[in-house]
Structure formats: structure tokens, C-alpha cells
Specification:
5-stranded antiparallel β-sheet, 283 residues, mainly beta, Lipocalin, 17 strands, 3 helices, single chain, globular, 2 domains
């Protein structure tokens, strides 16, 4: 009889959601992640709910929203480091064109800090330093040019906007993140709805794999030929953080085009690049 009871216990334990403990199973708390884009120096206290983590697992924004009552304590980060603490509201949906967009409002909000990422987890989301590097070195420009030529831009005009060094996975080896953009702009800095021949915007990763430098594209778009009213988008890095408390750092990007913007987060695992979250609004 004892043997039969042991077998039944093992089999029941394999059923998803089953607990051998008396009483209801306790769910892991959800730690939300919120991104704040600041393209024109007009910092606003309401940001995009990217999603969250629970027990080290990723929770999509739609699922996370119903599990976030509001009142959560957030640690706030820019690429330069932690910049303070704040309290977040319950997630709310936008209106009209943004009716499917989930927002969280922070109180207080550190205006003037530029784009930032808020993480509600109790851990230090920046366990290793981020080093902002110069954009002039020719080797980085050559790496960008090689990508652009492979996408059909024969004589690319290389304009690097960010070069960042960081040890993403804690193995002691630094990775390199680069963003590059070449677009026409309105006088106030906004993007035009048209693309010229040779326009582009991308973010790529350079890392050492088995003693060799490997370049991988995280995201990007390319225009070998001019296109009218195509809505070209700019991509840039706004955060490099441990978003789920496992000691590995994810990459948070922002994107914008002439009628809207968004934020997204990526996970790097060896040769695999995975988009975890995306949230934004545009007409």
C-alpha cells in the first residue's frame, strides 16, 4: 500500500498546477518592468508596461497587468546607473489609437533624466557597470558598414549614435552594443515620413565566441532605395539591465517614427537573440 501511495504522489506531482501541500498553492509575485522614452527632453511620468517577471519567469504585459494592483516600489535606471526610487500606479489602458497600450505612472518622477527603465524587483538590476564608449573608432564603423552593405546599401553613410561595453552574462567577457542611424529630420528633431536611398537605423551586438568576434543584428531597418511615406523608424538603446533577477542583463530599446514610439526588451543567450516584450503607441 505504501508503494502504491508513493507512485500516486509522484504521478500527481507531474500534473501542472498540482501541489502536494495542503491549502492553495502560493503564486510568485509579479515584478513589473516599465520603460519611459524621452526623445525631445519632454520627460513624462507615464511609461509603457513592458511586462514583468515572476519566480524568474517572464510574464507578458497583458498577463502582468491583471496581477499588478498598484503601489509597487520601483528602482529607476538610465544607462548611467540607478537614479532613484518611485511608486507605480495600477496599469491602465490608453485611449483611441493607444487603446491596447498599457501604461504605468510613477510618483514621483525624476524629470530631466532622459529615457529610463523602472524595475519593481528588489534586486540590483545593474549588477555590472555599463561603459559608454566613443563612436569614432574605425573598427565599429567598418562593422556597421559591413551590415549595411549586406542589406543592399552600396555606399553607406555610417553614423554611429551609441557604442556601449558591458558584460551581459557575468562571464568576465565584455560585449559591445552599437546603434547607428541615418535619417532626415524635421527642424524640431522629429523623423520625416519618407525614407531616402541609403537611410537606415539598427542596433547590433559584437561578442567573442570561441576566440572570434561575431556580429549579430538585434533589430534594424534599411532603405537601399527611396520610399515615400514609409514611416522609417529610429532605434536606440535605453537600458541594459537584469530584468528578472537571475544575474544576466537584458537589453531595452526604444523606437520611434513620425507618428509614434515604442519600447522593447531582448534577451541574449549564446547565439540566440529573443525579443521578450514590446509595447508602444502610434497613429
Amino acid at each position: 500500500m505504501a508503494t502504491i501511495k508513493l507512485i500516486l504522489t509522484v504521478l500527481l506531482a507531474l500534473i501542472p498546477g498540482f501541489s502536494t501541500h495542503s491549502g492553495p498553492a502560493m503564486a510568485a509575485p509579479v515584478f513589473p518592468i516599465v520603460a519611459f522614452n524621452d526623445f525631445f527632453g519632454d520627460s513624462k511620468p507615464t511609461g509603457y508596461l513592458l511586462g514583468g517577471s515572476a519566480g524568474g519567469q517572464w510574464v507578458k504585459p497583458e498577463a502582468a497587468a491583471g496581477l499588478i494592483p498598484g503601489g509597487e516600489s520601483y528602482r529607476l535606471y538610465t544607462l548611467s546607473g540607478e537614479v532613484g526610487n518611485s511608486v507605480g500606479s495600477k496599469p491602465a489602458k490608453g485611449e483611441d489609437a493607444c487603446a491596447d497600450t498599457l501604461y504605468v505612472t510613477l510618483t514621483p518622477y525624476p524629470a530631466g533624466r532622459g529615457s529610463l527603465v523602472a524595475v519593481a524587483g528588489p534586486w540590483n538590476a545593474m549588477p555590472r557597470p555599463i561603459k559608454i564608449a566613443a563612436t569614432e573608432p574605425q573598427v565599429y564603423k567598418e562593422a556597421a558598414a559591413a551590415i549595411l552593405k549586406s542589406k543592399g546599401i552600396v555606399n553607406p553613410k555610417v553614423h554611429l549614435t551609441q557604442v556601449i561595453r558591458v558584460d551581459l552574462d557575468g562571464d568576465g567577457e565584455e560585449e559591445l552594443l552599437v546603434s547607428a542611424t541615418n535619417y532626415a529630420r524635421f527642424t524640431h528633431g522629429g523623423l520625416t515620413p519618407d525614407a531616402r536611398a541609403g537611410d537606415y537605423s539598427l542596433v547590433f551586438l559584437r561578442q567573442v565566441v570561441q576566440g572570434k568576434v561575431v556580429t549579430r543584428i538585434i533589430t534594424g531597418e534599411y532603405y537601399p532605395r527611396a520610399k515615400k511615406f514609409t514611416g522609417p523608424a529610429e532605434h536606440r538603446i535605453i537600458g541594459i539591465l537584469d530584468l528578472n533577477g537571475d544575474g544576466k542583463m537584458e537589453i531595452v530599446l526604444s523606437g520611434r517614427y513620425y507618428e509614434g514610439d515604442w519600447s522593447e526588451a531582448y534577451r541574449i543567450q549564446g547565439a540566440k537573440i529573443t525579443k521578450l516584450f514590446n509595447m508602444g503607441c502610434g497613429s
